[in-house]
Structure formats: structure tokens, C-alpha cells
């Protein structure tokens, strides 16, 4: 539906969850959202492969430079709150366009920061933009497609996976090489190699990661401009009721109780899901280098790229069967596959490169469709407004804050295998939490 630039269409909650009738508007907005998610994925995945280079630039070790993950997670919480307050009150693509332009400038600054403190601050700003973008894209897609969002949601998150896959490949030519690491490649002493993670990375040579960050910034800038063009063509404002702003006539006490409990369980599931994804991606390259496998930095970066390649293939395949398989079937199938991959990683991840690659690819493939399928499944039982989406993402932000910092300390002080152990523990935790949420939803029935 076309409109003048100054004319807005305000939608009630029911109307906002119905698919937009104009096919061209629906498709263009889906493309715009997908491009935004791809840029967000690139920003998400760029830190892990460049972590050692960032440490070298700052003359720091891994546990110190990993504070960028903590700063980013703090930004996730800020971005979640900001999106929850704003997204239901303004045009989604105006919000997206502004965020993408801001994110473009912030991304350029990451490798240029001269201190850990400034890197932490940039991490906060990055996290704010990334999380607000993620909520805006998901909520906007649900508003465009309504209950028919299963396949579009998988496509949207496929774009995220593509961005995450491209990012390690993009930065690989710009990574430096470590003379210290090269001298350890032929060492058979595990204690000597383990100490590498505690060394100050002052000998990295040939690092030009600032060019990789600039390329990502250029892409992000143009996507932001495209989002603003879409806003000018089809301006809309979605006015939805908030999480608790529902009258007694509209909702019974039991319905309200179900919604609160269902959102709480979904929040915990997404906390585990996003926390594990960010942690595994952020430390996989480092794990390959400092584990007993003694992988080169290039090989470990390729391993990280394979994780996102499997993730992207999983999302692509999910797009093909999304209209055939129920979201519940997809979620259960994914949990089983993730468990298989996590067991391989936890028991064989540091003893065999083949098993490490197998476990990484398996976990990446099966975790791909679980996130979007979970959101689409929840949307069948509750109306996911911007505020509910914000609550979900606060849980995700907590997972993304706690797990990377905890894993960084465990790797530094004990063993790199703690990365794999935590992945397995978190994956096992899916089963009872998701099981209770699914049973609640099935007994309650779909929303009208």
C-alpha cells in the first residue's frame, strides 16, 4: 500500500499482526529486513576471528580483550530496552535505517581503539545497535507476515547466517601472523602451548584488520540508506498494546498468567540459545589455536567459517521445509541434533581435528533453525509485540554477557575444553525448559 511520505497508517494490534496485502510492499520490506540482518550477522561474527589481532593492537592477553564481549552484552541490554520502548511507536524502517547508519560509524572504530576501556565502550555501542536491529527486524517481519511468518522468518535468519559466514572469510586476508605461535607449532609440550593464551600478544605482524572493518561499515551504510528509502515509500506506525497493557475484557486472569509464564520460559530458552551461539563463535578460533590440536590461525579461522557455513545451510534447508513442517517439529529435531554435536565436541573436540570439524558443523547446522522456529512457534500462542520481543532479548543479552566472560576466565585459568563442556551443559538444559514451555502451549491452544 503506497502512501505519501508524510502520511502514516496506524494499526491496531490485530491489524498489525495481519499480513500486508500489497505484495510489492511485503516483498521489498522482507528484502530490506534480510539485508539488515545480513549486516548485523557480519558485525556479530567479526570479533571472534580478529580477537588475537585486537589483543596484539592493545598489547593485551585474551581474558583482557574479551571484555569487549562484556561491553557488547551490556549494549545488548541497552539496545533491548531502547527497542522495546521505541519500536511500537515509530516506523520500523526509519528506526532500522538510523541504527544502520550509526552502526556503520561504530564498526569502523573497533580496531582503532587505543585502550581496553575505549574498546569496552565501543563494544557497548556496538551491542546497543546490534540488539536493537535484531528486535526491529524480527518484530517488523512478524508485522508484515503475521501468522504466515514461518518461512519468511527462516529466510530472515538465513540472511543473518550468511552475514556470519561471510565475515570470517572477509577478515582472513587481513589477519596478522604470530611469530610466537609459529614457534609453538612443532611443540609437543601441552603446558607450553597452553601458556600461549596467557602471553602478551606483542609479536603479531602484518595485521590490517581495520580494512576488514571498513568494508563491513561500507555495506552497513548502504543498507541503512536503503532502509530509509523503503521508509519513504511505505511509511507505517504499528501501535500495539504492551506486555501488561491489556484490559480485563480482553484477557482473563488465566490467560494473563499463561502469557507471563510462557514469556518467562521463552526468555530462558533464548538466553541459552544466543549465549551459546555468541560464546562458541567468539572463542572457536581461539580454541583451535590454543587447544591440544595446535591449529594455525588460518586453519582456526576456516573452522569458524565452517560453523557459519553449516549454520547458513541449515537455515537454507529450513526455508525449504518451513511451510511443510510444524515449528514444534523443527525445534525438537534441532535440539536432538545439537545434543549430538555437543557430545562430539565435549568428548573429542581436543583430540581429533576431524571430530572437531564434525561437531562444529553438526552443531552449526542444527542450531540454525531453532531460534527462528522458536519465535514463530511462540507467535502462534501470544502476540509478540515490541515489548515482549524486548523481554526475550533481555534474556538473550544476559546469556551473551555471562557465558563469554565466564568461558574467557575458564580458558585462561584452566583449559580451552571448558568451551565445549559449557556448550554441552547448556544444550542439555534446553530439554526440560523447552519441554515445559511446549506442554504449556499445547494445553493452552493457539491464540485467536
What do these coordinates show?
It is a single chain. By secondary structure, this protein is an all-alpha fold. Helix content is 73%, strand content 2%. The protein contains 18 helices and four strands. Strands 1-4 form a two-stranded parallel sheet. The protein is globular.
Keywords, please?
single chain; 448 residues; mainly alpha; two-stranded parallel sheet; two-stranded antiparallel sheet; 73% helix; globular; disordered N terminus
Summarize the structure in short.
The protein has 18 helices and four strands.
The number of helical runs is: 18
Main sheet, how many strands, which sense, barrel?
Answer: 2 strands, parallel
Shape: globular
Strand portion: under 5%
Number of DSSP strands? 4
Secondary-structure element pattern, one letter each: EHHHHHHHHEHHEHEHHHHHHH
Alpha-carbon distance between the two ends: 25 Å
Show unreliable segments. Answer: 1-18, 197-202, 239-250
Q: How does the helix and strand content classify structurally?
A: mainly alpha
Strand order of the largest sheet: 1-4
What's the layout of helices and strands?
Blueprint: E1 10-11, H1 13-16, H2 23-45, H3 51-57, H4 62-65, H5 67-86, H6 92-109, H7 116-145, H8 150-171, E2 177-178, H9 179-184, H10 190-194, E3 204-205, H11 209-233, E4 237-238, H12 253-290, H13 297-321, H14 327-348, H15 353-367, H16 370-379, H17 386-413, H18 418-444
Parallel strand pairs: 1-4
Antiparallel strand pairs: 2-3
Helix pairs in contact: 2-6, 2-7, 2-8, 2-11, 5-7, 5-17, 6-7, 6-11, 7-17, 8-13, 8-16, 12-13, 12-16, 12-17, 12-18, 13-15, 14-15, 14-16, 14-18
Amino acid at each position: 500500500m503506497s502512501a505519501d511520505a508524510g502520511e502514516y497508517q496506524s494499526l491496531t494490534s490485530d491489524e498489525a499482526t495481519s499480513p500486508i496485502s500489497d505484495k510489492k510492499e511485503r516483498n521489498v520490506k522482507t528484502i530490506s529486513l534480510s539485508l539488515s540482518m545480513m549486516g548485523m550477522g557480519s558485525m556479530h561474527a567479526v570479533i571472534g576471528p580478529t580477537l588475537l589481532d585486537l589483543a596484539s593492537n592493545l598489547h593485551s592477553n585474551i581474558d583482557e580483550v574479551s571484555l569487549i564481549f562484556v561491553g557488547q552484552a551490556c549494549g545488548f541490554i541497552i539496545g533491548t530496552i531502547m527497542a522495546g520502548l521505541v519500536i511500537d511507536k515509530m516506523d520500523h524502517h526509519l528506526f532500522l535505517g538510523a541504527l544502520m547508519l550509526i552502526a556503520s560509524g561504530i564498526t569502523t572504530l573497533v580496531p582503532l581503539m587505543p585502550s581496553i576501556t575505549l574498546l569496552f565502550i565501543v563494544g557497548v555501542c556496538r551491542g546497543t545497535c546490534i540488539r536493537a536491529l535484531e528486535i526491529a527486524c524480527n518484530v517488523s517481519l512478524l508485522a508484515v507476515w503475521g501468522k504466515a511468518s514461518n518461512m519468511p522468518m527462516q529466510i530472515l535468519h538465513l540472511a543473518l547466517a550468511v552475514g556470519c559466514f561471510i565475515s570470517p572469510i572477509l577478515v582472513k586476508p587481513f589477519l596478522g601472523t604470530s611469530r610466537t605461535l609459529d614457534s609453538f607449532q612443532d611443540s609437543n609440550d601441552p603446558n607450553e602451548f597452553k601458556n600461549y593464551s596467557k602471553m602478551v600478544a606483542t609479536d603479531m605482524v602484518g595485521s590490517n584488520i581495520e580494512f576488514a572493518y571498513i568494508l563491513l561499515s561500507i555495506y552497513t551504510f548502504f543498507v541503512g540508506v536503503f532502509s530509509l528509502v523503503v521508509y519513504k515509500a511505505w511509511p507505517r506506525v504499528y501501535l500495539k498494546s504492551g506486555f501488561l497493557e491489556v484490559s480485563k475484557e480482553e484477557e482473563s486472569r488465566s490467560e494473563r498468567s499463561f502469557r507471563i509464564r510462557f514469556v518467562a520460559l521463552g526468555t530462558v530458552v533464548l538466553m541459552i540459545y544466543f549465549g551459546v551461539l555468541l560464546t562458541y563463535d567468539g572463542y572457536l578460533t581461539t580454541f583451535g589455536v590454543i587447544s591440544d590440536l595446535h591449529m594455525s590461525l588460518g586453519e582456526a579461522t576456516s573452522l569458524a567459517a565452517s560453523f557459519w557455513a553449516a549454520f547458513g545451510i541449515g537455515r537454507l534447508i529450513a526455508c525449504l521445509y518451513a511451510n511443510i513442517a510444524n515449528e514444534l517439529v523443527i525445534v525438537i529435531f534441532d535440539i536432538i541434533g545439537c545434543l549430538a554435536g555437543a557430545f562430539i565436541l565435549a568428548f573429542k573436540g581436543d583430540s581429533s581435528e576431524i571430530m572437531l570439524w564434525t561437531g562444529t558443523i553438526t552443531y552449526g547446522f542444527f542450531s540454525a533453525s531453532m531460534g527462528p522456529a522458536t519465535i514463530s512457534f511462540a507467535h502462534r500462542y501470544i502476540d509478540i509485540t515490541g515489548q515482549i520481543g524486548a523481554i526475550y532479548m533481555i534474556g538473550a543479552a544476559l546469556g551473551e554477557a555471562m557465558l563469554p566472560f565466564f568461558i574467557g576466565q575458564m580458558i585462561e585459568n584452566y583449559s580451552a575444553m571448558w568451551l565445549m563442556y559449557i556448550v554441552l551443559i547448556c544444550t542439555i538444559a534446553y530439554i526440560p525448559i523447552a519441554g515445559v514451555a511446549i506442554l504449556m502451549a499445547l494445553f493452552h491452544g493457539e491464540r485467536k
